[in-house]
């Protein structure tokens, strides 16, 4: 068989481990030829590809962050209009099955292709952990470890200066990194996109902590967190980028200034940004990515198309791409209320 592989959307630790596992399984077990398309869907729109061999170079991909194929975000409208071109590229290259590895945007495009009869098996990735129908995505554990270590370090400097520290982490629509790193690092509050915050409440929590004689207040802020509409504080609008994504202007920075203005407490802000996506995946992510890659290659050989590999408990299963891309997986209210027991 000739199998195409691509990585789309923002990069994520573990992408290379999936590619390696697909190659080792498909080529090693079945003798398939693997064609890698470069820079996500763009490679298919522009017919840019490279053969990937089952050799030492591929084997060493396991620990490497980023993606050997490159990646890109593609405007969904451009992608929809380009579906016939993508199908043509697949035909021209004799591709009999395609394995797109990506987040919501990439998997949605994969679902469209599946609807057109293209044999596709998707692999979910994102540090944000917001893909539905899978317990977790690879990349999240790495980002979580990085964020946790950063917050651990902020505790000592915050205490020394008796400061409020705001740490902004990634998560446009879902607060998994914020919630999980907040719990893991013993933060005093996390703000997530799922639950609009009241600045007055945040300020009251800070005041009460310092009045109790505590020496610091650490708050993890997801980049997509936003104030409640009537909270007397509005974020400056960030606008929409060329891909239709919201642009953020730094919620933590803006909130920090507002806290200083309201209660006169010294605030410092740390934005972790792309550090959360860089470098080598954790062992957990290497294992999950490898398992996803093996199962994607096996699904291709079993003819289970239009599916996405997914983690359910300890087993890897398949779910229809159309189901998995219906909605994002957001932090449920019960997880937020559970976490609120630790905060303050
Ligand atoms: O989707 C993953 C993600 O890391 C988000 O958490 C973040 O908002 C976004 O990508 C950043 O995208 P870019 O690398 O295009 O700036």
From TrEMBL:
Catalytic activity: beta-D-fructose 6-phosphate + ATP = beta-D-fructose 1,6-bisphosphate + ADP + H(+)
UniProt EC number: 2.7.1.11
Pfam families noted in UniProt: PFK
Pathway, per record: Carbohydrate degradation; glycolysis; D-glyceraldehyde 3-phosphate and glycerone phosphate from D-glucose: step 3/4
Subcellular location as annotated: Cytoplasm
Binding site for ATP: 10, 73-74, 103-106
InterPro entries for this protein: ATP_PFK, ATP_PFK_prok-type, Phosphofructokinase_CS, Phosphofructokinase_dom, Phosphofructokinase_III, PKF_sf
GO process annotations (BP): canonical glycolysis; fructose 1,6-bisphosphate metabolic process; fructose 6-phosphate metabolic process
Domain named Phosphofructokinase: residues: 2-300
Binding-site positions, substrate: 126-128, 163, 170-172, 223, 268, 274-277
Annotated active site: 128 (proton acceptor)
Gene Ontology CC annotation, any one: 6-phosphofructokinase complex
Co-factor requirement: Mg(2+)
Keywords: ATP-binding, Cytoplasm, Glycolysis, Kinase, Magnesium, Metal-binding, Nucleotide-binding, Transferase
Entry binding sites for Mg(2+): 104
The keyword Transferase is annotated on this UniProt entry: yes
Site positions (Important for substrate specificity): 105
Listed PANTHER family: ATP-DEPENDENT 6-PHOSPHOFRUCTOKINASE 3 (PTHR13697:SF52), PHOSPHOFRUCTOKINASE (PTHR13697)
Subunit structure: Homodimer or homotetramer.
Protein name: ATP-dependent 6-phosphofructokinase
Organism listed in the record: Nocardia alba
